[in-house]
């Protein structure tokens, strides 16, 4: 939508009506009375943001002239995106107060950490979680000093930041996390700020299509706010440099109703942005009300609103330094002005910049924000920094007895069956047991049926709100399975779902899971840091099921063979990662039952989907998986003696081949003493000092000898 002098216009090449007010760069308009308090609050957050980047704890409110000793020895951080994010957050607070909404804020350009830290400090949440960072002069000094400082906090939005559930250090995943977060939470709105640099990444570009999968009756909603500030570190951004009609057409084509607000003059920008935000809230409410009229499986896809906010990079910062443009250029991306310690002539410029926010009209003598500004903060239960979905309490799944879906007597390889098919029977029952709670989902890139988990479609469907045609099956607007041919998207949805308290798994081909390696890294780091933060709760485990593995590629071949993801997984924190390679269906059932009952882990399970020999009874599988590694006496002939050779295997096909090799050896060399060892839990092979599941040296030697 676009407001041109208050008149509605119609785009000639999209046919879409646009109604968002356009604020111009030129002119200086007084801030309307109803936004003057909010404008001062915005200044407060910008002041705190600049203070975090530049200042130590000695002179946080410039009660005396700024000196070089007041500054950090090394300046780190990103200012460019920060004022725009502060602007958005302030207006969201106003909307929350007026409409009592349940909102999470996701910072896609998460390197703008000063903004979110400033906001949660102003609302009082930061002090609730970190009592030494008090809401006074001393606490403000500590807030400044700790930012991007040894022993302090990161420069980006991170687990240390109250109200965060999205790691801001790597770009591209904010929108898929946002859509994953609102699944099965019909009362939740996620305001997801997407940076225009981030928007150039592949995962982000794909994730706009998430709106085709969101059920407005049973799920919450995502309000994307595309923040066009025009520049990355050293280049302009693509979306800021395309014609306006192309920009509008792009998002209309994605299925959104875009509302554009642009400018730099606060007097115009405050009313324009809040008008757009209010229209979005009205639209969301109307969509939700309309959806209630239909059965959940028949709800039609609405046109969700979004906002495109175009504001200068480094807004409110120095206009220029040494004759070079700063505000509205790439030079404001990180630290807009070099450290005055290295160039003292900048000291006065920094002081002028800080004083431009008029801190004396914002904070009292003790360094507390003035009461009239504090009144803009939502009530504690509605503060975005305190939203319980961003730090959920772990709630376990209801799980069936996996023995009901196993093979009672596999007759040592005589029975042939598909391991994954039996897992499908088990997952079907998991879905049934947790249907009322709506807290379990399966995600995959078009491979759930291919990976032989099709039994789940006896009790659920694939959730999809795009156009459906005759011949489509296992598909409705409300299902427990979500499939899109993008590993990034599926992993992002799952991560967002897990980070807000849901349970689930992603199933994918082993060779192509590498696509999400970097996402996997970031999730590992998030979980690792949560373990070190006292107030962070344990999360449900993230489960990765890999099938169509390296050993069996009947329809494909070399392109679909790569077991290397496991090598990457084992390099991560041992308190987080687990790798399981079950040899048959009963072991797979036992393993996955265990995985779904764990918390705060990343479980990677590799299994076959084709029919294969089955080896262990249900009781044997239970014992073997509980131990994680063991000698199979029926495949060995050592009978307690020192073996001449140890045959060891992990996984279904390697076990089959190792057993075949053992059989040949025993026929050809009957005097050869062979011990057969099978590994289910790969981490058992680590020393105990390296992994909590690792064996002691003596236990290891008792199996593999010395």
How would you describe the overall organization of this protein?
Helices cover 32% and strands 14% of the residues. Strands 14-11-15-16-18-17 form a 6-stranded parallel sheet, with helices on both faces. A 5-stranded parallel sheet has the order 3-4-5-7-6. It has a 3-stranded mixed sheet with strand order 20-22-21. Helix 2 (82-99) runs parallel beside helix 3 and helix 16 packs across helix 17 (618-627). The longest helix has 26 residues, at 266-291. It is globular, with a radius of gyration of 29 Å. Residues 1-27 have low confidence and may be disordered.
Record the strand order, biggest sheet. 14-11-15-16-18-17
Number of strands: 22
Low-confidence stretches: 1-27
Radius of gyration: 29 Å
Strand residue content: 5-15%
**Mind summarizing the main beta sheet?**
6 strands, parallel
Q: Structural class of the secondary elements?
A: alpha/beta
Q: Name the shape in a single word.
A: globular
Distance between the termini: 73 Å
Question: Helix segment count?
Answer: 19
Helix content: 25-40%
- Mean of all residue-level pLDDT scores: 93
